[in-house]
Structures are given as C-alpha cells and as structure tokens.
Design a protein that fits this description.
single chain, 10 strands, two-stranded parallel sheet, eight-stranded mixed beta sheet, 12 helices, alpha/beta
C-alpha cells in the first residue's frame, strides 16, 4: 500500500520531528499551563496508592492479577478507579496536575497518543527507573532506555509500556457467514445497519485514511477522509462511546461487525459469543498502552514499585493471561494461553505494526474531533 511505513521508519521520522519541535513544545507547555502541581517526591513506600484503569473486564483483570497480590505482599491499600475512554482520563489527570479541584491519580493506564500529550503538557512525573529495575525487561522496540519511542517527547523515561493492543475488526460469524479481511466491510450497505462504529477520533480518522489509501500519519487529502466517513454514516446502525459499550452491542446482537481489539473479543468468546477478529488488509494500527504517574503524586515511590511489580515474571505472565493482551516485557512467559492471544508476537519486534505519530495527531485531533462529531450528528 502506498505511503505505508514500518514501525522503525515511523520511529526514525518521529525522532527527527521531535528534535525539531522539542523547544517549541516546551514553550507551549509552559505558556499554556504555567503552574503545574509540584511533585512531593516521596522516596519510600506509603500505605495507599490511587490508580485508574480501563473499565469492564480489563479492570477486573487488573484487580485480580496486580492489585490484590500487591496489597497482600506490600500492605498497601490500592484504590482503583475506572474510565471508559482516553478523553475522560485526560480531563481527570489535567485537573489533578494543575490543582483544578481534581485528585491526583498516582498511576494510570493511558493510550500512547494521549500519553504523549500528557508528557508534553507536564502532567506526569518522570519515572525514576532506578526504582524500577524490571523496566530493563521491556521489549527493545518499546524501551526508551534503548531507543527513541514515539509517545515520549521529553528527556528521561516518562511512561512504562503495558499491554500491546491492535486496532482491528470483530464480527459475528453466525450473522456474517463468510471470511472477512477488509476495512470495506465497515462501509458495506448489505449488512443492514448492523455496523457499529467506535466514535473515537483516532480510530475513525485512522480507518478513514486507510480506506482512502492514505497514510494516517501524513494525510494528504483530509476531505477524502471526511467524505468516506459521511458515506459510512449512511450505513452505520450505532456509534458507541467506549469499548465496553461496543461489547454490549455484540451481546444483544445490535452489532454484527464493529472496530474492536483482540482482548475484548476473547472476553466475549469466554461468554459464549463466538466472534471472529481480523486486522484489515488495508492497514491497522497498534496501540501500546502505557503506565504513567500523575504530577504531584503523593505516592510516587509506591507507584514506581507497582510498575516494577507489574513487570515481575510471575505477575506479568498472569496479567497478560487475564487481560487477554500480551504485555511488552520479555518476562512474559509463553504459556499456551498467551500464545493464543491475537497480539502475541514471539519475536517482540511487532512486525507489520503501525504506530500513530503522536506529534501529528496531537496537532490535529482537536479540530478533527469537531468534524467527526459533526458527521456523526448529521
């Protein structure tokens, strides 16, 4: 496909752009938010930790594989909050960092495009990797200590890679009795308005770019994307706000096909819904969730030790199995369950994966979101 770049090529391009924009980005961050809440800089374990993770089965997996054993081993009370989407999360962490009436979240899961924004705006604490010795186990392709990574524009390490999540398409073979492999199915009028679409800007515009033969990180003609999404609007039965809602649409058979990720599909299969899952031949994006520590965290050291605990071989293997996503650590053991995960990559090089360019998307997402909302409401 024309303009398609490999992960390594994308990383090299990002590094050049980030170097050119680093000074300007710092000025923007300081001028927009002049007084971020200062770090309290604890250097010892505390008795409490406040975390935020994704809703639905994923938060249950976090509690079972991470929170409960961490509490038992270290005597720390972990309070778990959940969020349905990255936009909601960003509102919360900005308020906490700026002292705008919100509580500081000590540690949270974040999508890497919005993780970039949080780092650029100064809403997170740098990770003191000397307190996270197991950070050395992070896959080389995602390890900032070994090479540049697209989501981290600031000095040092500001995010710890978590699970690897492809953005693919799920469908119900009981309703669609043929093998699917194309993005075109999300525009297929023959599916009788049983198409459901996640109303997330990066998912919709990214798929619109692939659909029109364009590079999602360098869209030459955005009007073609808008026209494609307008055409899709004519056949969509439902838009959904978060992935838990998307799962519910499959459960009640409102949706026969929708953008989803492999872990959510496996969760639905465990409930007796035999979905198929594929990565479109036109192109697909990989979202690597990351762990970040909120600016001014009163439990910063404890949060760093939670990350270190997360990467421990027994813990990270169990977490990968329960989350239905492989975590980006060489400490993950290749159990039969993990080998069966849609995003398992035994070599750890993530061949074929495309990352969003966070600089490009951070620049355009606000305006694009307004356009997406306009199309959905039309």
């Amino acid at each position: 496909m024309r303009n398609q770049r490999t992960l390594e090529q994308s990383r090299q391009a990002l590094t050049r752009r980030q170097a050119l924009r680093a000074g300007a980005g710092a000025v923007v961050a300081l001028s927009s938010f002049a007084f971020p809440r200062a770090s309290l800089g604890q250097d010892k374990m505390t008795k409490e930790l406040v975390i935020s993770t994704w809703s639905g089965f994923f938060s249950d997996a976090v509690r079972q594989s991470l929170v409960e054993p961490f509490q038992k081993e270290f005597g720390v009370q972990v309070r778990v909050g959940v969020t349905g989407n990255a936009a909601e999360l960003m509102t919360r962490i900005r308020a906490g960092a700026m002292g705008g009436g919100g509580d500081v979240i000590d540690l949270f899961w974040n999508e890497y495009p919005t993780a970039y924004t949080a780092i650029r705006q100064g809403w997170v604490e740098p990770l003191r990797v000397e307190n996270i010795p197991n950070y050395a186990s992070v896959l080389p392709s995602l390890n900032k200590a070994q090479r540049p990574v697209p989501w981290d524009p600031a000095p040092g390490v500001n995010a710890a890679p978590a699970q690897m999540v492809s953005r693919g398409i799920a469908y119900d073979p009981r309703r669609i009795n043929r093998k699917l492999d194309s993005l075109a199915e999300l525009w297929n009028p023959d599916l009788g308005r049983r198409i459901a679409i996640f109303n997330n800007t990066s998912w919709m515009v990214g798929n619109g770019a692939f659909r029109t033969g364009q590079d999602p990180n360098a869209i030459a003609d955005i009007e073609r994307v808008w026209n494609a999404l307008r055409e899709q609007r004519k056949v969509v039965g439902r838009y959904f706000n978060n992935l838990v809602e998307g799962q519910e649409l499959f459960k009640n058979e409102t949706a026969w096909i929708a953008p989803l990720n492999g872990g959510r599909v496996l969760d639905l299969r465990s409930q007796g819904i035999p979905l198929e899952y594929y990565k479109p031949k036109e192109g697909w994006m990989l979202n690597a969730d990351v762990l970040q520590i909120g600016k001014g965290s009163p439990n910063r050291f404890t949060a760093e030790k939670f990350i270190d605990f997360y990467y421990r071989s027994d813990i990270v293997t169990r977490a990968s199995e329960l989350m239905n996503f492989p975590i980006a650590s060489r400490n993950v053991q290749a159990t039969d369950k993990i080998k069966s995960l849609p995003d398992f990559d035994p070599g750890g090089e993530l061949a074929g994966a495309r990352f969003y360019d966070p600089t490009y998307w951070d620049t355009n997402t606000s305006a694009w979101t307004e356009k997406v909302r306009e199309i959905i409401a039309s």
